[in-house]
Design brief:
The structure is a homodimer of 516-residue chains. With 516 residues, chain A is an alpha/beta fold. In chain A, strand 5 and strand 6 form a beta hairpin. At the A-B interface, helix 1 and helix 2 of A face helix 1 and helix 2 of B.
Chain lengths: 516, 516
């Protein structure tokens, strides 16, 4: 992984060889181990807790004062987690976790080699309490609610930790560290902190910088004396996931200006370079994730992720995941579909259906115009897959919000689109977006396509980097301290901009010279 | 207390006033509190644990962002323990504890004023398992033995903490810190560390420097987020009690050379000044504590603590504690008695009875000579109180051991008696010794009497100082690192010296010019 060296690990297993005690050398066992480890680390300070101290004399004698020590580096000194035989296998492992509101992704890493041993993702079990953050914040305020949300999450994570260990043939005790990135509310729920004030003016989190905690502080089932790094937040609406995103993008090291956008229900935007970082978040609505479409669903087998419409014949080519018969459409497919409908003239610049262009695909259901995307004979469900005018309207509002947020932030820092060289799109969803389609819709700016870079799950990527490298872990706090978070001021100017952005691609066509 | 300023406290309660949060100032509650506290401390770093973080938002809001914060200073930064209303009473308290093998002494201190609120002492409950350290070490090696010894101790301490709180009308949560000094084995048992290797060559403790631990690490019933400072040891036979003694004596700051002796079953000796400290310990035998005499007992009402014999009339004047009829004799009374017997010619320079001088007080019981110290008609028990030849012999061996240990250590550092200006006698027992009697016996060196200073319970005094002052707490580690512990080498020279010291005061009378 770029810029990450094994020498920079903050969770390590190192050989420690001591002289056995003697009458003339009566240093206590624990102090002997600590001194030996400090020497092996080139003089850095090492600490040890009382519970582990109790086990040291027998372990040292068992291994003849020649061991390997598992350690992690805290704020200022190293901490002994365990000692094992000099030839002990397997390695020390760590877990990088992206705590998404809907999906949780985890990655098991060998901390000696840096190798990804396995990656897994699963539904956030809190979804059963409420699909969105606000519902969960309210639930947390009820008697026992916070504890229930935390337990749901921790138990599910522990299940996964157990399965990972079993599949890898290791013990959960081999997992010495974890690195956790999530939005501010998810991080609060993970830590058992009441998110009550997050959604109430003036929107104050309990905690900005959780830093390093012990697994038992939250009940995480890795090595009990291990360590958990929890990403900080820069406010209620600027979470650790986005800080991890900045870390993963590396935009904070570049001379050129970049934009990082995490496209989702909330559009989170970061602008900047190695000298400054400005962040902003605004509600874009769930339409971008396909959440409002009747046929909308998360990416999975049979889900449409790409659409091409031949403008001449009006013929649809849909691509599905795994090539199965289509069963629904994901957010990125939606954006492709609507952009293609526009290019084929089937919707106008307001995003309204042009029935004469849609022909036999047009249906009126419940007094509303619907377009048949997939006829029942071709669908995997046996039903027709349709897109209603209302669904397009929702997407139009979302794409307008997205564009307006970007425009507003760029204006705030007195820059223009052309000043930006790179445009990073973060999030699993973002990695499926066809940037060309997003530009056609006017959702993303009309920059050269080679400037777009889809980074995938940057929250997980950032968590991984912070787990593997002390420099990166420390960079997390630097990023947090450098980011200026600006509140999106929804004033008249914003509303004017929003209205102008509700057209395809925009009322000001000069902003989108590449769109026909 | 000398040299201890309230400004040097490492457990403090300080006012912290914050600006309440606003849209333009959205720092999280916990970070706001931490920053405010750091500012109040003049910029020093402050940390907080996750469990307390959970309570901060409600507490801050309850007190309108104007609080007093209870803090302690760790190795490098301060830690928040609690926040209370700005006018909250009472104060923050701390507990200084001397963990003696037989007796435990504890002192409750107001950490704002430094005032001793109450002092208490009680039997070490481990006495029921075994009166001496060796028995307890063996007991700790049995299944569940270590846990039982630790529980006995901690439960008893917690009982006392509870009673102290009740009597003072405070909560145990007001006790934010504790400072614990004890010998190496007692400290191990307090910490739940197996003392198995302490009494086995090469005599290696589990741990030299416990430093700061959390109350819950051992189950101590003070504030759960408080802190416990545990004195370090410099080896199996040089414990935290003696390091506390050095701290209390202040000998490590003086230009002149001093001797510090803790007289007990083990004679522990420290020589040195501000430039160097050498320590040594040797078995002196229980005789010095009155432990072998049939009438020996610990100091208490009716116990003889001073004896004067008129050499002319052979009349005994005995003083008892509280002036009650005599019921027994304590160690210091024993030393007085035997010195007076010698000065009255009732024993010779070998410590053997001279029957013709003892007259009607001489009895033969079980074929052994006994001296009647108190006749039955005068005693509080209705029985005669006697001292046998065997008991004097034991005392002679102990006093000889004491003198030999002192002589040997002084010889090791190439100094002589006359090089020492001050002679500190530590221990509750030591404070009752009449130094003149100890000199007559040849147990302590023949230095000017104004050079002797009985310091009382120096372990408790040192624990108190370390609790009240960061400089003193840090000095504890400095002392530990500076002390050179030398093993008492019981070679032919030692044995020769020991034989010479088995006379009163010594075969070399020039060493004791003041003794007739």
């Amino acid at each position: 992984m770029t810029g990450i060296s094994p020498k920079d690990r903050w969770i390590r297993r190192i050989p420690v060889r001591m002289t056995p005690p003697a009458i003339k050398d009566n240093t206590a066992d624990v102090d002997r181990l600590v001194k030996g480890t400090e020497k092996a680390l080139g003089g850095e300070e090492v600490g040890i807790d009382l519970a582990f101290s109790r086990k040291v004399p027998l372990l040292l004698r068992e291994h003849g004062y020649h061991v390997r020590a598992d350690l992690y580096k805290g704020r200022s000194s190293w901490h002994l987690v365990n000692i094992v035989a000099p030839d002990e296998a397997p390695s020390v492992y760590g877990l990088a976790v992206d705590l998404g509101t809907s999906m949780i992704a985890a990655r098991l890493l060998d901390l000696e080699t840096g190798e990804v041993k396995e990656e897994t993702s699963f539904l956030n079990p809190q979804i059963h309490v409420g699909p969105d953050i606000l519902t969960r914040i309210h639930f947390a305020g009820q008697e026992g609610g916070l504890q229930e949300l935390q337990s749901l999450l921790i138990n599910r994570l522990n299940q996964e930790i157990q399965s990972l260990a079993e599949r890898q043939g290791i013990s959960t005790k081999n997992m010495v560290g974890a690195s956790i990135a999530g939005n501010t509310t998810m991080t609060h729920l993970f830590l058992g902190l009441d998110p009550y004030w997050i959604c109430r003016e003036p929107y104050i989190p309990v905690l900005n910088r959780p830093g390093l905690i012990r697994p038992r502080d939250v009940g995480l089932g890795i090595h009990e004396r291990g360590v958990v790094f929890v990403f900080p937040n820069a406010g209620s609406y600027f979470g650790g996931d986005l800080i991890a995103g900045i870390l993963a993008s590396g935009m904070n090291h570049q001379e050129e200006f970049s934009i990082l956008v995490d496209v989702g229900t909330n559009a989170e935007v970061v602008l900047g370079n190695r000298d400054w970082l400005v962040a902003c978040a605004g509600a874009a609505g769930p339409a971008l994730e396909g959440g409002v479409a009747s046929m909308g669903m998360m990416a999975g087998p049979g889900v449409i992720d790409k659409v091409v419409i031949d403008p001449a014949s009006g013929e649809f080519q849909v691509r599905t995941i795994d090539g199965l018969s289509p069963v629904g459409i994901c957010g990125s497919g939606m954006i492709d579909l609507v952009a293609q409908l526009y290019l084929a003239g089937m919707i106008d610049i307001r995003g309204k259906y042009v029935p004469e262009k849609c022909g036999r695909r047009m249906r009126t259901i419940d007094e509303m115009q619907h377009l048949i995307v997939v006829f029942s004979k071709d669908s995997g469900t046996g039903e027709t897959l349709t897109l209603s005018q209302a669904e397009i309207d929702a997407l139009m509002r979302s794409k307008a919000a997205m564009h307006t947020i970007l425009t507003t932030v760029i204006r705030m820092v007195h820059l223009e689109w052309k000043d930006f060289r790179r445009f990073y799109v973060a999030g699993t969803f973002g990695s499926y977006i066809n940037p060309r389609s997003a530009i056609v819709l006017g959702m993303l700016p009309d920059l050269p396509l080679d400037g777009y870079e889809a980074l995938g799950n940057t929250s997980l990527a950032g968590a991984t980097r912070a787990l593997l490298s002390l420099r990166k872990r420390e960079e997390v706090d630097e990023i947090r301290n450098r980011v200026t978070y600006v509140e999106m001021n929804v004033n008249q100017e914003f509303m004017n901009e929003f209205s102008a952005a509700k057209f395809i691609p925009h009322t000001d066509r000069t902003l989108f010279p590449s769109v026909p």
